[in-house]
Amino acid sequence: MTSYAFWNNKGGVGKSFLCFVAASEYAYRHPDTDVYVIDLCPQANVSETILGGNPNSPKALNSLIQKKPRATVAGYLEARLNSPFMMLPDISPYVCEARDFNSNIPKNLKLVCGDNLLEILSEAIRQTSQLSIPIDAWKQVLTWIKDLTVALRKKSGNRDTLFVIDCNPSFAVYTQLALVAAENLVIPFTADDSSRRALENVVALLYGISDPLTETYARISFAKRAKEEGLDIPKLHTFVSNRVTLFEGNPSKAFQAVNKTIKQTMDALHQKHRHIYAISKELPSKSFISIPDYHSACVVAAHTGTPLHKLKSGPKIIVEERVQLNKDPLDRYRTALEEFVDCL
């Protein structure tokens, strides 16, 4: 079982779309592997894309939410709230066959659908984690999604499994649940200073590694408590520089300058804290992947729920507007995204 959380403390970096690409392409390439997408973002963007995009997803999401119990990740968490310290005997009601809603999706891709009820449940989940009895209530609650991955692994029997977990940018309790369930962390970012600061926040929040000005708060941090209670947290695996602006086929100088700074920041951190990296022997800059900006292809794929391997060049109609996908930029975009999937 291998699991990847997609997270950055900054929104708008394309993590949900990269989740969709990672899951659908990995499932397509590995038909003997069950790929589970667990959507722990209340906006449910990756779920919307998997369920068929803008034309079909509202009806699909509504049908899953109206089931008894809700056939979503919130339905599972709601059931865990009713029995906080005992795993559910059957998790099948909370998993859907994505291909039932979107024929473009490989049949071995399964979805634990996102749900905006997560926001409402989050305070109840947080309060349950603070119960004084049992003494390990916090640890048990924070592993609810990890419990789900274990149960899904058993459900797959002898088949290999891969888990792709989409996270919200915030460090809310549902994001913590997602991160604790993952072995590896994929961090999409854009080449700007706010992304650099967000990467530093990721390191501070998850591992308690920060500047002297915030050391006062280390005593009450998530990282400190996780270490004390033996709670596993993911390792930094891959950094995806997304939506790279190209000029004459090469990254712009502005992009190169900021990207270099981000690489230097991660490499400097590696010298003192190799234990937080999945590949500890290599400089983090070696695991940076660059994805060129091709907004039209992203919009078409997300709007129609079309995986990368089925996306073709040519004219497309999106909300009564004609969108042209040109072959050369689409091929470059596909090659870069395939290189990213190769890292998983």
- String of helices and strands: EHEHHHEEHHHEHEHHEEEHEHEEH
Strand order of the largest sheet: 3-4-2-5-1-6-7-10
Strand content: 15-25%
- Helical element count? 13
The averaged pLDDT comes out at 91
Proportion of helical residues: 40-55%
Computed Rg: 20 Å
Oligomer: single chain
| Count of DSSP strands | 12
Envelope shape: globular
Report the sheet with the most strands, covering strand number, pairing sense and barrel closure.
8 strands, mixed
User: Roughly how many Å apart are the termini?
Assistant: 12 Å
**Structural class per helix/strand content?**
alpha/beta
Low-confidence stretches: none
Structure write-up:
The protein has 344 residues and is of the alpha/beta class. It has helices spanning 15-29, 45-50, 57-65, 73-82, 117-129, 137-142, 144-155, 173-180, 193-207, 222-228, 253-272, 295-304, 327-342, and strands at residues 2-6, 33-40, 96-97, 109-112, 160-167, 184-189, 235-244, 246-247, 250-251, 288-292, 314-318, 321-325. β8 (246-247) and β9 form a beta hairpin. The two termini are 12 Å apart.
